[in-house]
Design brief:
The complex is a heterodimer of chains A (77) and B (732).
Chain A: E1 11-17, H1 23-28, E2 36-42, E3 49-53, E4 56-60, H2 62-65, E5 68-73
Antiparallel strand pairs in A: 1-2, 1-5, 2-3, 3-4
Chain B: E1 15-23, H1 29-37, E2 41-45, E3 52-60, E4 63-69, H2 81-91, E5 97-103, H3 107-118, E6 124-129, H4 131-136, E7 140-141, H5 143-150, E8 154-156, H6 165-173, H7 188-201, H8 204-213, H9 215-220, H10 225-241, H11 246-265, E9 266-267, H12 276-284, H13 290-306, H14 308-334, H15 339-357, H16 360-376, H17 378-391, H18 400-406, H19 410-415, H20 423-432, H21 442-452, H22 457-481, E10 492-495, H23 503-522, H24 524-537, E11 538-541, E12 544-547, H25 557-569, H26 577-585, H27 591-600, H28 615-621, H29 624-636, H30 641-651, H31 654-681, H32 683-711, H33 722-731
Parallel strand pairs in B: 1-4, 1-5, 5-6, 6-8
Antiparallel strand pairs in B: 2-3, 3-4, 7-9, 11-12
The chains are: A mainly beta (77), B alpha/beta (732).
Chain lengths: 77, 732
């Protein structure tokens, strides 16, 4: 399962970053393995997606999200 | 080694130090900079690149500190030119002290950079910004604990309210320069790796950089080839031995340490209530209302700048400028100097300056509202909303704002491309902006369509705007596929919290941009105006070369050029040298196309103010088809001198500038040619051409689709990064 499959309102934990494009920046922005990510919403045209990671709002394209492996978690809220 | 020590022995008793402000984008660096330096700031260009750094001075006790505001970075691993400036500045150790601004409301990610900076061993003070947001969230942050855990001074401030700045200055003055900053310690295996790298690289910062970025960082060091090879070998060895992706090792460890510190120093409020940002975003990035609201906001900005308000301010301003320049030129005329000197001063210098200054009020209004949109954080949302639509043209959401500005004026639009990540993306956006029909081109369509297309004038004008957008987008695709393949059009963007912009910062922001425009008007443009003046006011009449009156423009050098190049323009429907001359004067300012037509056709009164005066002359001189080709050429050909100067500034190299100039001319010519020649053939030929074009494009896309299917891996059909597939395959 990848980050792209997570619906708005759902949460997940990153298991692997397989993305090559922007890879280092994605990692530096805090998307490391074991990090909790909550998907907040999709842009009006369906892409990019807005996520909450380490307490801030990050937006990324599905092209990248598709290469971020995650496991779904029950919402903590 | 203590980098701070040397500069401290100034001969005059006062010490001088260099302070660099480093922090994440949007962490309030510039606000702090303005707060620290007050009005003692200046703007300077970095050599070779277009991004500006700012410097200012502040007195701290008996120390004169020079503060440099560097472009914001998330990490020392860069992805944009702008970020590289900051990293190079740090690597060169040009400062005695780093003030690292850390957004306390976003502590985890901000500390990532802090940890990287601590590896440099440069004296460092953390300015903990946005304490007000932390308090509002009812989080509790133990600053003393944070200071103890980080091992460097931590000063809580709220830059937007100027609170805590006094304490920050005091702590800078009291900095214990003798003490080496406590360095971050990673886990023992990583420390062992760093030690082995440091043995070759010489210092810890270089060692960590090489460990993190591998080949890219190793190539950037100024070590010998043998040392570089040794580092590369060490890197490969470590990479093979690593059980997880090697580039994750250090960031993972760093974030773990950060989490431990944050968990220790910060107590998050139990109640997670909906923040103001969440509530605003519920509306502004709403699935259905997001786009209409976005269009509404953009429309409002344009309406304010170019609608009644802007026109009213402009009229007043132009009236004042004309009054002043009128008095001045009256005075100049009264001096009784040689006629050509009077003409030079009045027509070229003052006339030219008045023409440029006429743009100023609308630009200032536009800059003001855009600064507000930027300072509040809405611009990031606009990019988020528009990204999907622009992607198919090889652009990213961040290109949208510059393009939108292009409808007003290309000059601020090109300056706005600096927010884009990569130099290549900046280039593409800068190069397509001139095709977007700017406000100054509107009078051309207005007069010509009004004269020749009567009832359908609106559709004709609208088609011009569409043509401009179409050519701009197609050019973007073309550039991306050919000359600028390395353009990434990447998108990964933080959405900052909404903030209320402060009056001071908004005005400083606006003023900075307005000032740039005025300075340019006084330098580059003035030279250009003098050249154009010479060409249009000198010529040979009855065998003598002399200064001409305005009505004699036909005999001017410009007129001669217009006549000489007319044969070139015949294929695109120009039959009159006056049309060519009008196009030529358009390079000064697009408004003057209509003005020149007025002069050339001998229309009394100002053709710009009352276009209908020109209707009979235009009806006599152009057929509708010729007029349409003329408008298309005026729209697409090289922009005015002000825009060209801005374009040169943003593109940097002459090579690119000349390329795009030639490209624009070629496109304008080909489009006008197609319009005129196909139009002359009648409607049957047009449909034939459309059918052929459709057939060719279908065949072309089928072939391309087949090639693409063959060349890509199964898992990522249609992925944007061409190299990624091969990378993936290699891994398996």
């Amino acid at each position: 399962m990848t980050l792209q499959d997570i619906k708005p309102g759902q949460e997940c934990v990153i298991t692997e970053i397989r993305c090559d494009n922007l890879r280092k920046r994605i990692i530096d922005m805090g998307l490391t393995t074991g990090t909790y990510v909550a998907v907040k919403k999709l842009a009006p045209l369906g892409d990019p997606m807005e996520i909450i990671v380490r307490g801030y709002l990050l937006t990324l394209r599905k092209t990248e999200a598709r290469h971020i492996e995650v496991t779904r978690k029950e919402s903590r809220a | 080694m203590k980098p701070g020590r040397k500069r401290f022995t100034a001969a005059d008793g006062r010490a001088a130090i260099q302070i660099a402000l480093v922090g994440n984008p949007n962490s309030g660096k510039t606000t702090l900079f303005n707060g620290l330096t007050g009005s003692n700031q200046y703007v300077g260009n970095w050599p070779g690149v277009t991004v500006e750094k700012k410097g200012g001075k502040v007195a701290i006790g008996d120390i004169d500190a020079e503060v440099t505001d560097l472009p914001g970075i998330y990490s020392l691993s860069t992805i944009s030119l702008e970020e590289e400036i900051t990293v190079d500045y740090i690597a060169a150790r040009r400062m005695n002290l780093i003030v690292n601004i850390v957004d306390a409301s976003n502590l985890e990610r901000n500390l990532f950079l802090t940890f990287q900076l601590l590896d440099a061993g440069i004296p460092l003070i953390v300015a903990l910004n946005c304490m007000d947001i932390v308090e509002k969230r009812m989080d509790v942050l133990d600053v003393a604990k944070l200071e103890q855990r980080l091992g460097v001074p931590v000063v809580p401030i709220t830059a937007s309210k100027q609170s805590g700045l006094g304490e920050l200055i005091r702590r800078i003055g009291a900095y214990a320069w003798d003490r080496t900053a406590e360095r971050v310690r990673y886990s023992p295996p990583i420390e062992a790796l760093i030690a082995s790298f440091e043995a070759v690289a010489g210092d810890r910062l270089t060692a960590v950089r090489c460990l993190e970025d591998g080949a890219k960082a190793i190539a950037k060091t100024n070590l010998s080839e043998a040392q570089k090879a040794r580092l590369a070998a060490l890197y490969d060895e470590a990479r093979m031995a690593s059980p997880i992706d090697f580039d994750m090792v250090i960031p993972n460890d760093r974030y773990e340490r950060i989490l431990a510190i944050v968990g220790d120093a910060m107590k998050k409020a139990d109640v997670t209530k909906l923040s103001a940002t969440d509530r605003i975003d519920r509306v502004l990035t709403h699935r259905l209302f997001g786009i209409p609201l976005f269009l509404l906001i953009m429309f409002a900005v344009f309406w304010l700048a170019f609608g009644p308000l802007g026109t009213w301010v402009t009229d007043g301003f132009v009236w004042a400028v004309d009054l002043v320049f009128g008095l001045v030129s009256g005075g100049v005329s009264a001096l009784g100097m040689a006629p050509w000197v009077t003409s030079l001063l009045n027509s070229a210098v003052f006339g030219g300056l008045a023409a440029v200054l006429g743009f100023l009020p609308q630009l200032a209004i536009l800059f003001l509202f855009l600064s507000i949109l930027e300072d509040t954080g809405y611009m990031a949302r606009a990019a988020f909303i528009m990204d999907r639509a622009l992607r198919r043209f090889g652009l990213s959401g961040k290109s949208f704002i510059p393009m939108l500005l292009g409808f007003g004026c290309s000059v601020p639009a090109m300056a706005a491309t600096r927010t884009l990540d990569k130099a290549e993306d900046r280039k593409i956006t800068t190069m397509i902006i001139p095709f977007v029909s700017c406000g100054a081109k509107a009078p051309i369509y207005g007069v010509i369509a009004g004269a020749l297309f009567a009832a359908s004038a609106y559709y004709v004008v609208f088609s011009m705007y569409l043509l401009g957008i179409l050519v701009a987008l197609l050019s973007a695709v073309l550039f991306k596929k050919t000359v600028l393949r390395s353009a990434s059009a990447n998108y990964l963007m933080e959405l900052p919290e909404y903030r209320t912009p402060t009056l001071k910062n908004t005005f400083l922001h606006t003023w900075d941009r307005v000032k740039g425009f005025v300075v340019k008007a006084g330098t580059v443009l003035l030279g250009a105006f003098i050249v154009i003046w010479f060409l249009s006011y000198f010529g040979t009449v009855d065998g003598t070369f002399r200064l001409l009156a305005q009505e004699e423009i036909e005999h001017s050098l410009l007129g001669a050029i217009g006549k000489a190049i007319l044969p070139l323009f015949r294929p695109i429907g120009f039959t009159d040298w006056r049309a060519t001359v009008a196009i030529l004067t358009g390079f000064v300012a697009k408004e003057s196309v209509v003005g020149t037509l007025g002069i050339l056709y001998g229309v009394a009164g100002d053709a710009l103010v009352n276009g209908s005066l020109l209707y009979p002359a235009i009806r006599a001189a152009f057929t509708p088809l010729q007029a349409y080709a003329f408008m298309a050429f005026a729209l697409l050909s090289a922009p005015c001198i002000a825009a060209l100067a801005a374009m040169k500034r943003e593109l940097g190299a002459w090579k690119w500038f000349m390329f795009i100039l030639a490209y624009e001319m070629a496109v304008a010519y080909l489009v006008a040619l197609a319009i005129y020649q196909l139009g002359s053939l009648g409607s049957g030929a047009i449909f034939t051409a459309l059918f052929l074009a459709g057939a060719v494009s279908i065949v072309f896309s089928t072939i391309r689709g087949a090639i693409r299917r063959k060349g890509s891996c199964a898992s990522c059909y249609g992925c944007s990064s061409a190299g990624a597939c091969d990378e993936e395959r290699r891994k398996r």
